[in-house]
Amino acid sequence: MNGMRVANRCPVAMGRRTFLASLGAAATAMKMGLLDFASELFAGEPAPAPPKALVHVVFLHPKGDRFWMGWPGASYDVKARKADYVRVLSEAAKRFNVELKVQLEPMTNRGEVNAFLEGIKKSPPQGIIATVLHLNAWGNANHLAANKGDVPTIIFSPMGSSFTGHLQATRKAPKTFVAATQDFTWLGFGLRMLSTIWRMRHSRILVMAGNRTLDRKLEPLGTTLHYVPQNRWVTEYKKLETTDEMRAIADYYKREAKKIVEPNDQDILNAAKGYVLARRLIAAEKCDGISVNCLPLVGSRAIPCPPCIAWSRLRDELVVGACEADWNAAISSRLTHLLFDRPGFMQDPAPNTVNNTLMGAHCTCATKLAGPDKPHEPFILRSHSESNMGVAPQVLWKIGQRVTIMKFQGPANIILGTGKVLRNIDTPPSGGCRTSVELEVDDVADSRDCKGFHQLFIYGDLAGGFKAYCRLAGINVVHI
Prior knowledge:
It contains 13 helices and 21 strands. The protein has 480 residues and is α/β, with parallel strands linked by helices.
């Protein structure tokens, strides 16, 4: 340690920025009031950033800056509005690491559209945003959508540029989303979706299961599952020495918890060690998150503490921490983080047939359910329910909160629904896992019909955004 990089024979050694290993770092954190340990202090080095996504921005309309009669009308300042759209996109490009190639001169006829299509065939971008600024430009827009190949494409139609009939031809165009709206700031989210498709293709998830090391690429998503033997969690955990950073993490949870029920101080310190180990492993393997087949390790008492707190904290930082080597849940979390800056609650679904509701429970849950820049929800420190050992957070969800339910079912399909939080459930008197939430699910006649297992519950009504992303990414959506 001590800031030096170590050879591969010590795969979880820390780099200079990975962990601040001195007493001074912890003391500084305490002095500055940083016991909520911002990621800069305790987080591991991130996976290498992918190259920038290249997105072409083009405009479809007749020549000129004003249009006499017909929509959008002579009062519509084309030049000014294009400047607005490019400004929003440029700001979003900085945030989401996207390179924009903007063509302000409009494409006015089929020949110009064909020339553009020939160009992207020779050098495909990662996305296209084509803005339609006249009712008569839809023939060219439809031709572009039908012939742009596999490139994810957004057709942006600000209010005044389309009627119902204009929006029909693109409905079945592959990897195409038509955004017809008066809200031009939506373009920021549009660019974010294109960036997310690219970043999902370059994401790597560390999966600790079985006894082999191998990589598996998930198509059409492109995410890589990087498998290593699950016993590595055990062997590396045993090597950990207690540091001041671990003590600071443990102190944070003791201080912030609404109540501590079963765990003692050593349990909480053991839980903090699990977070440190997870961060080191993610950094060492150059991944964006981790999932461990943890239940056999807990059941055999191979580890003193399940990684429930580790996963909770990772999710608070928008880093994937998924249970039971469930890669579908892991890639669902990665997508949710990239698209909405929200963590998801991976849970075991239990239909309530008396109330016709859906209960979801697990022994790990993010505390910053509204996002890492928002205050954490109240939480209680409990033991892991099934083993009654270690530390698990019981996170108390906001009653009445709108939620989205989603999960990948293989890399080409997503189940999706929405609902509302009715209540939190205590264990005891109930059985099951520590964080336990009951939802009223929208548009489900019988809660036994809810599809999937380990679905994510996510704060907010995000179904529209997920659907738009799936249109662009070529992913099928099935109602919950």
